[in-house]
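quick one: flavin-adenine dinucleotide bound model?
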Amino acid sequence: MIPFQLAEPASFAEAVRLIDPEDPTCRAVSGGTAMMLMMKSGVFQPSKLVSLRKVEPEYAAFTVSSDGALQAGALVRLGQLERSEAVRAAFPVLADTFPVLSNVRVRNVATVGGNLAHADPHMDLPPVLMALGAHITATGPSGSRTIALTELFRGYYETALEPGELISGLSVPAQAGRRSAYVKCTTRSAHDWPALGVAVSLAVTGGTIQDARIVLSAAVETPTRMTDAEAALKGAPIGEEAFRAAGEAAAKAAEVTSDVRGSAPYKTQLVRVNVVRALRKALAAEGAV
Amino acid sequence: MSVTLLKTHPLMPNGQVGRDVPRLESMAKVTGREDYTHNLRLPGMLHAKIVRSTVAHGRILSIHTEEAAAVPGVHSVVTCADIRTIIPEPYFGPAFHDQPILADGKVRYVGEAVCVVLSHDPHIADAAAQLVLVDYEELPAVYDEVEAATSNVYVHETLKPAGTFPDLKHLEGKRDTNVALDYRLIRGDAEAAFAQAAHVFEHDFTTQQVMHTPFEPMISVGEPTSTGLTIYTASQSPSFVRIEMARLLKWPENRIRVKTSHLGGGFGAKLYIKLEALAAALALYTGRPVRVALTMEEQFYTITKHATTFRIKSGVDTDGKVIARRCDVWWNGGAYADIGPRVTQKSGFTAAGPYDIDNVYLESVAVYTNRPPAGALRGFGIPQLVWAYESHTDLIARGIGMDPVEFRRKNILRDGRPHATGTVMKDAAIPEVLERTAERIGWDKAFDRGTGTIRRGRGIAIGFKASISPTTSVAIVNVSADGSVTLYSSTVDMGQGSDTAMAQIVAEVLNVPTEGVCVVRPDTDVTPYDMATLGSRSTFHMGNAVRLAAEDAKKKLDDLAAELGLPERSNIPVDQLFKKRYGMQAGNVIGIGSFIPTYKSPDHDTGLSDNVTPFWMIGATAVEIEVDTETGHVTVTRMVNVCDVGTPLNPKVVETQISGAAVMQYGFTMSEKMELDAGQVTNASLADYKIPSILDIPPLMESEAVVATQHSGPFGAKGVGESATFGVSPAIANAIEDAVGVRITSLPITPEAVYRAMRAAANQPLEDF
Ligand SMILES: Cc1cc2nc3c(=O)[nH]c(=O)nc-3n(C[C@H](O)[C@H](O)[C@H](O)COP(=O)(O)OP(=O)(O)OC[C@H]3O[C@@H](n4cnc5c(N)ncnc54)[C@H](O)[C@@H]3O)c2cc1C
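yep, here:
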């Protein structure tokens, strides 16, 4: 490993100041789980790392409001959310997702901010948070702004963050009875990156789907909402016919790429099948099987 | 995962052999006190970083080392020319002397070691290595084993067999070929029998290139000493390393000392000679200790398991008896032969399977290609063969409408009958293993075949293996004056539990507790010769040597008692015996054991031999699986592995060897594959090369050792480390056909392969890409 500078500022504002927006080899590091792998494999050689580890403790804290909205600082560890009763109650889909996201050692170290800034399209949390309607707060030299997760991911390892801008927090709105589910589909081993991720979130009244969000990840370049599939569900009665229509629409619209986890035609079939399965899973309590 | 244990096996009279002795080293391992070669740091030690070839086949025009050498902290940049100042003929290998210590004017695969950067700091060496520029004149390359066998792209100019093997002599100096060994077996008249057969079946099967993935990557440290050289190395074959280094340096063996620690896995990757020659040459070149340690990623460029193509053809009579079989096997050896030619022959001769077939024609060829070299990997080629012949066997049974187990039963090779080589089977519980496997899986019972998108199926497969022969093991048992016992053997415990098993043999013979026996780590200055820890040979060969050594010590103790005038069976404690003899706590009794089995080399023209192996290993697998018909995902819900291991020395260790071997082969069956693009491995990391995790393992795994005795083995035992690899792959493929009616003929069995096969069978093939 080639030597580099490491700064450990005591405040978030200082961290923002220490990052040189002109220098792509100067970057933030939070949990370091992704950063260390990039450095070891030579993909990234930093001249300077600004660790967020020692910033104010509020960045490592989170709250769940009485109606079930989550506010989390960027330095909150995934494991903290995983073990929180309040998070589990407000977002059962998160409780279901964490156990398949890497392993307990990584989850205890990896942070919300690092996870969302990394923008590897195979990651499990981005599609789920996107389906839940989350947004982040980005803080840079000229202040803070919010970015919806639907706007955050721009490409492989690419986000809408400006150079010098950091993720400072995450907000997930109260779900108000929406039903959600995530399906991680691997094709080589259980701990592999997914060949496809499908996250869904649905508002239902009686037996009817009022509104649907369907997000695909891993098989596509960035986590992507499937608007045609969502439209196919809007106003439809809960049931296999609607699910299959959504699966077909997603399979038709998804821009799937080939890689070692499967060819594009095969992964398109995975989309077709797993959209249906994710919908069934989300609505299992509603009598869908 | 749940694992059901073996049957109760006999405990020997002194209560040591046959007991579930916990592994002697487990406490040190789980508390982090185990001393691995990786932890070794020597004063003044340099770290080596290897610069690797970026082309699959090319002439080296120039190596620009100046920029790297100028990096502060770099000691030197070493090329083959520098190595030659220490070792004028820098070519090594167990079967062929074909592999240069560093590329010698030419590279033959992507990842081949071209030169080395040395520094006191591994990070500096690493960074500087990236500054070395190598100019190549690229040459056409060949990757496929069948194509390479007749290609006019030649990986080597001439063949250079090592000379240690008489059956390779005829290849000396041969030009214009990639075929490094052509083994042929001719029994009866296969062509004539095919003409008479009621049915003839022919199929092609392939396997992919995979890697051993030991969790301790390869490491060797060379240290110049006042008398010569010490090599600390994570090696499965310290004796071989010493002999090969002595040959390269033209030194007597006793100037070279090779020491090993416990290994963090080996599986055949750390056999013969790998990094040792480089570490030794660098140490002698610089006059300083040099550490050559690979990363996990670099292991993909070092040694692998052969990809294969196997064309198999059988003639069957109207009763379902196989009357003729022809086997053509191509082994993709990669750029250097390593032990590939031995795999080709010593495993190749079993390619017709554990069946009683009168007419067999078999060709098995080792082929050079421009891929990373292939060598021994748990099973020594057998899993590739069983994959083909047991898939084929099932296809025949289905083709003639016979139950697959019944068909096997009808053709199975029984004790007293000759194997295709002519060797008469003995102590080979093949029928017993088949029957127990069928019984445990409930083959004759009703079976839930699933509904809707989940279809269920069952499959069974059986294979066998000969022991590589003839090989020698020597052991020393030292009884100290207080009666404590020490075993000196060069068997390397790489996690298989050999230290414990060998201690049990000593303890049983000398009637002392196993837990009190000290087993000395292999050190060629201290522990005697052993061919290598490979091919499940240690229990049998070293076990016999250890037993002889312990018996020799026991006899010497008895002689000592007699010399002192003590009545026979006086049972005087050993410490008092020494005291009586020497007047104080002093002296030793040293027992020596040396073992080599009898053997007859196969005839060059016919491949026949009436004594081709000292023992046979047998393993069968049965599985129950579920196929997701919408995605092709296969879930193995239950796996039964049954082996003939003779009489287990330590049933608990046998159980873990059976389940461990099966899980390893399960990874090679379902997910592992080195992806190659123009000779470049594109997934050379554990992030992209997927071995099974605990979540992938069948929820129900059952292991059994059938009641059996290897009469020539120590306490009736024989090898166990590989037998459960044999049947795994074809059992799963057979179960898939049982479930959804499609046949997979290439490994790995990915969900996509299954799904595509199902779509093709339904006449709605999925587009290609
Ligand atoms: C063994 C292993 C297995 C894994 N398996 C999975 C899996 O199954 N599923 C899955 O989804 N993920 C998986 N991951 C990825 C894991 O989720 C990420 O590594 C982790 O979430 C990154 O968080 P971090 O805090 O460690 O980020 P870091 O490594 O600290 O940073 C990652 C990137 O984000 C930048 N960054 C960090 N913090 C901020 C910030 N506040 N604002 C802006 N940029 C920032 C860094 O500069 C860097 O580019 C795995 C990782 C490992 C090591």
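The interface with chain A takes residues 123, 126-127, 130, 297, 630-631, 633, 667, 670-671, 675, 682-683, 685, 687-688, 690-693, 695-696, 750-752, 755-756, 766-769 of chain B (CB under 8 Å).
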